Amino acid sequence: MNHAVLDKDTKADAKLGIVDCDIHPAFGSPAELAKFLPVRWRDHLADYGQRSANPVVGTLPYPRMTPGNGMRRDAWPPNGGPPASDLAFLQEQLLDPLGIEYGILQPLAAGSSTLNQELGAAMCAAVNDWQLDKWTGPDPRLKASISVTQEDVPAALAEIEARIGDRSFAQIAIPPRTIEPAGRRRYWPIYEAAEHYDMPIGMHSAAYGQHANSGAGWLNFYIEEHYAFSHSLQSVVTSMVFEGVFERFPKLKLVVVEGGFAWAAPLMWRLDKQWERMRSEVPHVKRPPSDYIRENVWFTTQPIEEPENNRHLLDTLRWVGTDRLMFSTDYPHWDFDDPRFAFKVPLSPTERAQIFRDNAKRVYRLP
Hints:
Helices cover 39% and strands 10% of the residues. It is built from 13 helices and eight strands. α5 (117-136) runs parallel beside α6.
């Protein structure tokens, strides 16, 4: 890898060695996933449908801007199908022109939040087979996420064991809005497996989950849902710190995806202050919360909170830590970040390399 080229503050930056940590592959049609489901579950879906804790199934909970439910207008494949459903067009529009060396797939399928957990496990396995068949097999630049049913821990562990030997998978995917707070011990066997296999846990804000983004229930508008993505992820980080997850699993890696990151610094300040006053309540948390966050948690960069004075973004980056941030485009969504134009601040060559490439390579163990 040529660091000198990557570190230039020109469009050529994007030509070499970028790791995109948030790409959303889509089904060309529902039949694509059905092909990987056992006949028993195909028949079940035909007869009974699918149920989740979300207010609607088969569509998004909130209407998004048109055309295309919040997708980039130019991301519709010329041969048909929804955005990011055609590998050749994804290569042509994203991977090749922007120099994406690796892309981490974040499928937004509902298997992990399906109420029938046996069906959910079958759907997660089907999503995993689909990623290998359609995406990572034809293009090794793409790396898959192991979709699991986190509420059925034995099934989740079985799926992890079945996939862990395949380096096409880069992380274990869990939605942040779990039935119980993410730090609860019911989920610890999954974290134990993730630490044992040095596989990050990726928690991506999404339409699917066991609860609404808001603690007060389902919101009125998509603009509220989009803003509230950060809330559920702050709850994840806080719960995992104070339940003692990172104390028990000191090498566990948590990747917080598509929830922003500017909130991380004030969250750490606040948690540290409260820990100093009330640490007797949580004697199992032996160090300031910020210590665990700075050692165990990484943040993908899209959506970036961009202040009016762009140089203030530099302060934010350094408060959070440039070693904690990993670049993401969120392709093909409407708020896509182009690596050629993101981070218009005077980053040092080392900081730029960290954010666009090196942190992700280390976290995901990419060659």
